[in-house]
Amino acid sequence: MIVTSVTASKAPRSRAASRWTPAKVDRVLHDGDTVALGGSVLTARLTAGHTKGCTTWTMQVRDGARRLNAVIIGSPNVNPGYILVGNKNYPGIADDYVKTFAVLKSLPCDIFLGAHGAYFGLKAKYEKMKAGDANAFIDPDGYKAYVAERDDTFRKEWERQKQNPGSGAP
């Protein structure tokens, strides 16, 4: 299950409580559900592990006569402190990461984007685009390399933790 919200409020609740009120959930999405924004349709892909509801978004983009597949990757990272073996709060975390990497590897990708610019080299691609490279963000090889590297890093950490259960990621 993926929860998305488009309505939030900054109205204070009380001085003792957070200054933010909880967001109103407009719709609960599931893997494969779509959201239309203007003329674009985004498809939610559940890529759990980093969080239980981590979402990668896909969409098709027209560039003249070309139709390109864009992937906006959520987060396939195993952050410091993540416990992959014996995690009482998230027992299926490692299995979710395995599923996530299977999903990510299955997605067709021409345009590689992500939750953080560092994932896909935003600064360098933006500079190329400013210099006139109309295809600066077309990077299927970069996407495949990034997913493979993150999967390899996850699997090494998982194996390390299998030898040392309860020892979170460094």
Description:
The N terminus is likely disordered. It is globular, with a radius of gyration of 18 Å. It is α+β, with helices and mostly antiparallel strands and 170 residues long. The chain has 4 helices and 9 strands; from the N terminus they run ββββββββαβααα. The strands form 3 sheets. A 5-stranded mixed sheet has the order 5-6-7-8-9. A two-stranded antiparallel sheet has the order 1-4. The chain has a two-stranded antiparallel ribbon with strand order 2-3.
Would you summarize the structure shown here?
This protein is α+β, with helices and mostly antiparallel strands and 170 residues long.
Jot down its keywords.
Metallo-beta-lactamase, Chain A; 26% strand; alpha+beta; 170 residues; 5-stranded mixed beta sheet; two-stranded antiparallel ribbon
CATH topology: Metallo-beta-lactamase, Chain A
Structural class by SSE content? alpha+beta
Instruction: Report how far apart the termini are.
Output: 29 Å
CATH superfamily: Ribonuclease Z/Hydroxyacylglutathione hydrolase-like
Question: Layout of SSEs?
Answer:
Elements lengths: L1 E3 L2 E3 L11 E4 L2 E3 L4 E4 L2 E7 L8 E9 L2 E8 L19 H14 L4 E4 L2 H4 L1 H9 L9 H24 L7
Parallel strand pairs: 8-9
Antiparallel strand pairs: 1-4, 2-3, 5-6, 6-7, 7-8
Helix pairs in contact: 1-4
